[in-house]
Amino acid sequence: MNARPAEIPYDVARIRADFPVLSTTTRGKRLAFLDSAASAQRPLAVIEAVDRYERTSHANVHRGVYQLSQKATDAFEGARERVRRFINAASLKEVIFTRGATESINLVAQSWGQRLGPSDEILITWMEHHANIVPWQMLCERTGATLKVAPINRRGELDIEAFRALLSPHTKLVAFTQVSNVLGTVLPIKDMIAAARSVGALTLLDGAQAVAHQRVDMQALGCDFYVFSSHKLYGPTGIGVLWAREAILREMPPWQGGGDMILTVRFSGTTYNELPYRFEAGTPNISGAVGLAAAMDYLDSLGIERAHTHEQRLLALATVACHSIDGLQIIGEAKEKSGVISFVVEGVHAHDLGTILDDEGVAVRTGHHCAMPLMEFFGVPATLRVSFGCYSNDEDIDQLVRALGRAREVFG
Question: What percent of the chain lies above the pLDDT cut of 70?
Answer without folding.
Answer: 98
